[in-house]
Amino acid sequence: MLKTFDLVLIGVMTAAAAVTYTIKHRAELKLEEVHRLEAEIKLEKDTIDLLKADWALQSQPNRLERLVNAYNAELQLQPTDSTALVHARELPMLKSEVPVPDVAEAKAGARGATVTAKAQPVPTPAPRGSGQQRGLVQDEADEIETGSVE
Fold first, then answer.
1. What whole-number distance in Å separates Cα of residue 20 and Cα of residue 144?
2. Distance from C-alpha of 99 to C-alpha of 122, rounded to nearest angstrom
3. 124, 100 Cβ separation under 8 angstroms
């Protein structure tokens, strides 16, 4: 003779067992995923180590010298002059990176400031076929592009 309370307890126990089993199954799946990811990470680390060793082997100076001597006639390589090496900060700016001066801001700043700033116009390229004018604008653009101040 089962009472209603006993049936409710059996139902709760069955539900708890089902939830426990589901949680255990999900935990096992996550553990398998962790093991798989650890294996992938180890494989990637081993690949990186292998590539570093390969790079060290490929970039040995004596090997490179042998290759230069073997293919010198075809490549016609020349040694780099020490004056040809520059730092990134020494490279000229791109024309798109040249700041555009604000004339109104310069005028407002000149009224209230002790030091006056003179805004310089940004050169525009001359139309094609204008000869001498085109060369003049190009020279001005080169001065601004390289940042030279005269």
1. 73
2. 9
3. no
Kindly state the helix (H) or strand (E) to which residue 102 belongs, with its residue range: none
3-state secondary structure of 98: coil
How is residue 56 written in tokens? 């060290």
Task: Write phi, then psi, for 30 (nearest 5 degrees).
Answer: -65, -40
Q: What is the pTM of this model?
A: 0.43
Under a CB-based contact definition with an 8 Å cutoff, are residues 123 and 140 in contact? yes
Question: With contact defined as beta carbons under 8 Å apart, do 84 and 137 qualify?
Answer: no
Single-letter amino acid, residue 57: L
Give the type of residue at 17: A
Measured on CA atoms in the order 9, 10, 15, 17, is the torsion positive or negative? positive
Distance CA 125, CA 6 (A): 93
Spatial distance between the Cα atoms of 18 and 25, rounded to a whole number of angstroms: 11
3-state helix, strand, coil in the chain (%, to 5): 70, 0, 30
pLDDT digits (tens, 9 = 90+) for 103-143: 666 666 656 555 444 455 555 555 555 444 444 444 444 44
